[in-house]
């Protein structure tokens, strides 16, 4: 018998469907984490390709290829940033079977949609992070003989990664919430589970209150963990000097003594 009070119904739903809510939340986190990780990889690749330098002395073939590549990357970014994820999920999941006779599984389609959608947003973030690094560092790297790939991997990207970490965390939080749109292709995540429980007893307010609290807990915990990771990447505020030079002090911060005043 369904209780009459609000909190009584909340307790009843948790007792009856607590495991279902947890299973849905687990599926939500799996899709969000995997999709964000793959999306970051896509975003880094696209962002790096978008910042390939072209010099006036380069051949016409290279200029044409780089220009065409940047045009394709720009089309990808604009398309997936300019259309809703729900529409993308419907188009990819059902359209792939209709147009190309490719029968995707629901899970593969979910990972694919979240990844390419996140990749489009991350591409612009990575591009901005790369451009935010002072050009003098690129010139210095080239001056000591580094190639463009070596400069990116050893000089630019480590700094860009630290700068864009807040946006990576923001994309994870967004994906945790936006996985609810994947219920339209049958993915049993937290929103899909909540909708089923609410429809069984017509307890929409109580069921979605539980879902709202669970979404908040997931996003809050992830945001706190990512904040700790950001602090770790910043490193310590004070550093000890270390050198193998026998004429220099080997460690610690050193303050040279003042010269004695001449008499």
From TrEMBL:
InterPro entries cross-referenced by the UniProt entry: AA_ABC_transptr_permease_3TM (IPR010065), ArtM/GltK/GlnP/TcyL/YhdX-like (IPR043429), MetI-like (IPR000515), MetI-like_sf (IPR035906)
Pfam families in the cross-refs: BPD_transp_1
Transmembrane domains' residue ranges: 29-49, 61-79, 91-114, 172-192, 204-226
Membrane topology (UniProt): Multi-pass membrane protein
Source domain of life: Bacteria
Keywords, sorted A to Z: Amino-acid transport, Cell membrane, Membrane, Transmembrane, Transmembrane helix, Transport
Segments forming a coiled coil: none
SUPFAM superfamilies associated with the record: MetI-like
Protein's cellular compartments: Cell membrane
Main location: membrane
Boundaries of every ABC transmembrane type-1 domain copy: 25-226
Family affiliation: Belongs to the binding-protein-dependent transport system permease family. HisMQ subfamily.
This protein's name: Amino acid ABC transporter permease
């Amino acid at each position: 018998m369904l209780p009459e009070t609000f909190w009584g119904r909340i307790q009843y739903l948790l007792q009856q469907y607590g495991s279902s809510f947890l299973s849905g939340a687990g599926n939500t986190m799996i899709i969000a984490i995997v999709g964000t990780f793959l999306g970051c990889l896509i975003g880094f690749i696209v962002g790096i390709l978008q910042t390939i330098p072209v010099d006036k002395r380069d051949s016409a073939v290279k200029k044409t290829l780089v220009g065409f590549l940047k045009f394709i990357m720009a089309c990808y970014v604009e398309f997936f940033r300019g259309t809703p994820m729900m529409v993308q999920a419907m188009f990819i999941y059902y359209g792939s079977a209709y147009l190309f006779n490719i029968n995707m599984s629901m899970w593969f389609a979910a990972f694919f949609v979240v990844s390419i959608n996140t990749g489009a947003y991350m591409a612009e973030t990575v591009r901005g992070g790369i451009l935010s690094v002072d050009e003098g560092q690129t010139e210095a790297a080239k001056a000591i003989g580094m190639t463009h790939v070596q400069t990116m991997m050893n000089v630019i990207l480590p700094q860009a990664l630290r700068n864009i970490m807040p946006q990576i965390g923001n994309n994870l939080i967004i994906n945790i919430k936006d996985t609810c749109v994947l219920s339209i292709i049958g993915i049993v995540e937290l929103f899909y589970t909540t909708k089923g429980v609410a429809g069984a007893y017509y307890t929409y307010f109580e069921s979605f209150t539980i879902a709202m609290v669970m979404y908040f807990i997931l996003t809050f915990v992830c945001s706190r963990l990512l904040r700790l990771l950001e602090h770790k990447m910043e490193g310590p505020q004070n550093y000890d000097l270390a050198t193998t030079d026998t004429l220099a002090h080997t460690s610690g911060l050193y303050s040279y003594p003042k010269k004695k005043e001449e008499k």
